[in-house]
Here is the input.
Amino acid sequence: MTQTLSEPRKDVSQYAPRIFVLFVNPDRIRDIIGPGGKVIRAIQEETNTKIDVDDSGKVVIASMDVQGAEQAKAAIRGLTQEAEVGRIYQGTVRKVTDFGAFVEIFPGTDGLVHISQLAPERVRKVSDVVQEGDSFPVKVIGIDAQGKIKLSRKDAIGQEPDA
Here is the structure.
């Protein structure tokens, strides 16, 4: 055997099928599948992969090429990601109110930057600091029992969003 192959290959043959396993929150499975399976079918068609989702949150991605599998993994992670306390995200202001700004940190997930968390100094009006469409780093400072995300712009000033 060692005469034929003295050491293991660095990578699998480009023609070998690839199988990747992800685990997602079981509550987020519906986001992957979508209405009538529309979302999962679209991901499979775009990436030329086969995706199986288990009720436990196990997602199996089978593909003939690495690029397609990586695209499918990225799409699924994008659909199922959840905010993490202490993490910095690049946020976009979706709505400005008297008490703060609602900021989207990733598609489908918004949080509130309270007026007291907009800047290190006192802010009289939210619209003096931010406008709808503005983009800036925000830090997740808390998630309450109802799942509402509390964000801080002042804690993220000068920091880069986590990759």
